[in-house]
């Protein structure tokens, strides 16, 4: 009995000792850890890794003459893609897509010096015959061209009536995925003498694609979009020769030139375009009028609901241009059939 009592008290004593020692050891360990942490925080390594801070870009024109093509993730040569809603938008930048977008209401019209720089750049690239932002005309020659993107759409028939009334020919840049739904309209565009161009298949953003895909994947996708669009158009107009290309959002890279040559394309961007801006039609028309100059290529849209607005803007712009002594050129005059 005594032995059992003695063992009991020994066990109790050991348990109490452990209970007392655990907090003490924890305090000692905590003090050592803090001293160690302080020592490490005062350590200054010879080389530090600096991560770039997140920034918000803005839509703006850049001078590409000092840029060299390095990777697919580089900033576009003419515009940067907006990551937060802008306070202002440079009005000659194309829309990202046809779906409703929150556009800025303030517009900054480019100055003469900016126009001169862009014209100088256009002259350089025109020599390669793959990329145009204005017509190759003599300085002061009052000739312009009208182009229409993102169709065909529900208002394209009425727009064709207007073009016939105005007696002008334009370049229609068609979305391949929309073409099968408007076969008669596409046929009419061609039969009435307008130029049929490709706007690729589904208005894909190659600015976005190149940030996540390899160069090879971008090229493969681009060629696939070209082929699908041509097939859809030629299923309606077998004899058509597609010569003109406008990439969605005005995308262009110099490495595209061999691809353009392979398909027989000339990439046509534009001098000015404003019809996606959410402002009154009268004010948007004034932007077009202010941008009128020799060799200008002007962008309008007939995709989805924009075709109705385009009719009013095209009529007003063409009438104004003619009053100023300008001639609206048939695209075939400069780029062939």
From TrEMBL:
InterPro entries: Glyco_hydro/deAcase_b/a-brl, NODB_dom, Polysacc_deacetylase_ArnD. Keywords: Membrane, Transmembrane, Transmembrane helix. SUPFAM superfamilies: Glycoside hydrolase/deacetylase. Residues 142-329 form the NodB homology domain. GO terms for biological process: carbohydrate metabolic process. It comes from the Bacteria. It holds the Pfam family Polysacc_deac_1. The chain crosses the membrane at residues 6-26. One of its GO terms (molecular function) is hydrolase activity, acting on carbon-nitrogen (but not peptide) bonds. CDD domains: CE4_NodB_like_6s_7s (cd10917). The keyword Transport does not apply. This is NodB homology domain-containing protein.
């Amino acid at each position: 009995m005594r032995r059992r009592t003695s063992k009991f008290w020994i066990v109790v004593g050991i348990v109490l000792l452990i209970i007392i020692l655990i907090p003490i050891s924890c305090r000692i360990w905590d003090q050592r850890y803090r001293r160690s942490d302080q020592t490490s925080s005062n350590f200054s390594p010879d080389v530090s890794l600096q991560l770039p801070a997140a920034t918000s870009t803005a839509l703006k024109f850049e001078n590409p003459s000092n840029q060299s093509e390095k990777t697919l993730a580089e900033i576009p040569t003419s515009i940067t893609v907006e990551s937060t809603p802008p306070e202002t938008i440079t009005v000659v930048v194309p829309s990202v897509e046809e779906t409703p977008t929150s556009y800025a209401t303030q517009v900054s019209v480019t100055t003469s010096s900016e126009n001169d720089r862009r014209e100088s750049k256009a002259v350089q690239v025109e020599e390669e015959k793959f990329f145009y932002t204005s017509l190759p005309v003599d300085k002061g020659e009052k000739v312009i061209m009208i182009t229409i993107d993102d169709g065909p759409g529900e208002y394209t028939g009425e727009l064709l009536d207007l073009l016939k009334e105005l007696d002008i020919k334009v370049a229609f840049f068609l979305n391949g995925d929309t073409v099968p739904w408007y076969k008669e309209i596409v046929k009419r565009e061609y039969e009435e003498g307008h130029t049929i161009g490709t706007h690729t298949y589904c208005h894909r953003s190659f600015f976005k694609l190149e940030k996540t895909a390899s160069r090879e994947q971008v090229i493969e996708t681009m060629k696939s979009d070209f082929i699908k669009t041509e097939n859809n158009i030629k299923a309606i107009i077998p004899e058509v020769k597609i010569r003109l290309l406008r990439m969605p959002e005005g995308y262009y890279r110099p490495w595209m030139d061999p691809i353009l040559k392979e398909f027989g394309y000339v990439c046509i961007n534009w001098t000015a375009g404003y019809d996606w801006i959410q402002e009154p039609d009268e004010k948007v028309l004034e932007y077009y009028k202010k941008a009128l100059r020799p060799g200008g290529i002007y962008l309008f849209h007939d995709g989805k609901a924009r075709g109705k607005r385009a009719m009013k803007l095209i009529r007003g712009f063409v009438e104004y241009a003619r009053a100023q002594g300008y001639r609206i050129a048939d695209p075939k005059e400069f780029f062939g059939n």
